[in-house]
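Priority: medium. Attachment 1 of 2:
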């Protein structure tokens, strides 16, 4: 009987093998794609959050540094005693000098004259700093009215104009200290007694919504006044609203307690919990953590969303969020194609199995082995069978799918870990390399040889000056030229762009052993390069610092990086003092 023939048995066995193989390949590939897709999607969201937080923090820190610099200058310039002839008249609170005597009218007049001259000195520095700080809409120095009621300070604003213009000062006595819209910029830092970021508020005096960074000034325990800068809330919103998260995802700002600072759909000051955007558990995590490593899932407007957050320099939380369906769309489509192709291929194989049993045996074995490697996460597979029959078509289709999968994963890795300007690795790639080194350090504790590595930190001198003088295009050319020289002089070491003008080189193996010679050759290469440079942006000037891992001293890679960074800044100071920053070429 036919069903007892070897041909029937082989055909039946072959048909069963085909079904098992195709379903196994499609299923295992789909599972692998989903697993890798989840990992890469979470990593991409995390990098989006970290990179945009870094960009915003860079801006906020520039404002902080500007105000802090002016505050230090203001305190250095002010005097606590002997401001005018006739002895100490002090700044000690209520018009009483340090010896307990009230000021005379003549002394008060001389104090006001001193303060007027003092304002001029501070104003010169403040205006210069404000002009170099992006996005500042106003800056001010306000003296404690108990020191002088007639000489109060200054206020400059660029709102509605292209340059800063001096405005009349607000009468502090006309408003209650709790009136944030009028005098919050003065009384909030006074109450806290420390440098303060004031969250977005409507400044009625200037007619604009803004954020303020204010530093209270104290001299010998006496409250002198405040210095501060204001930045536009709308500019901050514009920066955040421009962040692209998939198709309909977005970024927004919130306070640690879950109150909205900016949200494309919610009103400022509303509660994320009451709006149904986050749960109480999510807000609790927002309040106690600087960031979250694992994405949070929540329901919003009837759809499941995923979000990550990071804490900014001013204490607010930058939250990036997107629908889970969009996040998973790429690998979901790929799995759909895999399933569809697998099903179609299985039907085709079943129809022709009886005629091609022997020819299909070896190709199916290759497909099975390839699917097992893919299921293990190894996508570098080769399918050698190139026959023109159905098995060959299945093999070609599978090969095509694997190629697309490799391209997809390679594209994700390239986007996540490559610097777009210089094409070297970015800070995210350095973090991965650092984690591997930290794992090796942990594994070597008491059990083996610790890793041997070093880090060279490099900083491009005068990038901002080149940007300001010749434009950002020339600044980018300066960065690329500097990066190319670094890559050429450290050919066997990975180079990372750590920030705007900073690079890091990871020294291992031969590069680690020859590190001193490499640094010496680097200095020589810089000199040779600059001899032929015609334009300023074609010259190279890099401050550098190197540190090597010291077992027993360094806990992790961050310790090595911190020492290298410190040495680099020492070198930068040395170069500036020696006049070795880029000069105009002859």
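Attachment 2 of 2:
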């Amino acid at each position: 009987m036919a069903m007892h023939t070897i041909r029937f048995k082989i055909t039946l066995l072959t048909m069963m093998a085909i079904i098992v193989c195709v379903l196994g390949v499609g299923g295992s590939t789909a599972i692998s794609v989903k697993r890798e897709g989840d990992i890469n999607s979470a990593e991409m969201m995390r990098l989006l959050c970290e990179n945009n937080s870094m960009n915003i923090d860079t801006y906020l820190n520039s404002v902080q540094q500007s105000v802090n610099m002016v505050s230090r200058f203001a305190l250095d310039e002010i005097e606590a005693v002997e401001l005018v002839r006739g002895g100490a008249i002090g700044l000690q609170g209520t018009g009483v000098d340090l010896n307990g005597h009230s000021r005379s009218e003549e002394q008060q007049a001389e104090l006001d004259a001193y303060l007027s001259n003092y304002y001029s000195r501070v104003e010169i520095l403040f205006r210069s700093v404000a002009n170099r700080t992006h996005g500042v809409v106003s800056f001010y120095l306000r003296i404690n009215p108990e020191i002088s009621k007639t000489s109060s300070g200054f206020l400059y604003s660029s709102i509605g104009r292209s340059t800063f213009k001096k405005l009349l000062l607000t009468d502090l006595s006309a408003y209650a200290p709790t009136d944030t819209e009028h005098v919050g910029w003065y009384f909030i830092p006074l109450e806290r007694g420390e440098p303060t970021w004031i969250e977005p508020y409507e400044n009625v005096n200037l007619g604009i919504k803004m954020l303020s960074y204010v530093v209270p000034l104290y001299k010998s325990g006496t409250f002198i006044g405040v210095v501060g800068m204001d930045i536009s809330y709308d500019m901050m919103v514009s920066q955040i609203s421009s962040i692209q998260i998939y198709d309909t995802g977005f970024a927004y700002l919130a306070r640690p307690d879950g109150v909205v600072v900016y949200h494309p759909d919610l009103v400022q000051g509303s509660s994320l919990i009451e709006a149904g955007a986050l749960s109480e558990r999510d807000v609790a995590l927002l309040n106690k953590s600087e960031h979250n490593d694992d994405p949070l899932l929540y329901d919003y407007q009837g759809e499941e969303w995923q979000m990550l957050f990071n804490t900014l320099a001013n204490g607010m939380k930058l939250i990036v969020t997107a629908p889970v369906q969009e996040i998973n769309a790429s690998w979901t489509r790929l799995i759909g194609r895999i399933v569809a192709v697998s099903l179609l291929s299985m039907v085709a194989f079943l129809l022709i199995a009886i005629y091609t049993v022997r020819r299909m045996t070896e190709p199916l074995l290759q497909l099975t082995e390839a699917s097992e490697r893919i299921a293990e996460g190894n996508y570098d597979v080769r399918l050698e069978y190139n026959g023109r029959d159905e098995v060959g078509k299945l093999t070609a289709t599978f090969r095509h799918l694997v190629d697309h999968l490799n391209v997809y994963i390679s594209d994700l890795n390239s986007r996540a870990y490559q610097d777009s300007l210089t094409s070297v690795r970015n800070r995210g790639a350095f973090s991965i390399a650092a984690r591997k080194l930290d794992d090796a350090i942990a594994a070597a504790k008491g059990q083996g040889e610790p890793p041997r590595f070093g880090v060279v930190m490099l900083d491009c001198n005068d990038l901002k000056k080149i940007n300001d003088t010749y434009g950002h295009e020339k600044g980018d050319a300066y960065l690329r030229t500097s990066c190319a020289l670094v890559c050429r002089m450290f050919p066997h070491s990975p180079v990372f762009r750590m920030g705007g003008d900073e690079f890091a080189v990871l020294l291992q193996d031969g590069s680690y052993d020859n590190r001193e010679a490499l640094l010496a050759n680097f200095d020589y290469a810089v000199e040779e390069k600059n001899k032929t440079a015609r334009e300023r942006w074609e010259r190279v000037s890099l401050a550098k610092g190197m540190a090597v891992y010291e077992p027993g001293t360094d806990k992790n890679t961050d310790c090595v990086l911190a020492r290298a960074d410190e040495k680099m800044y020492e070198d930068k100071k040395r170069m500036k003092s020696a006049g070795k920053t880029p000069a105009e070429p002859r």
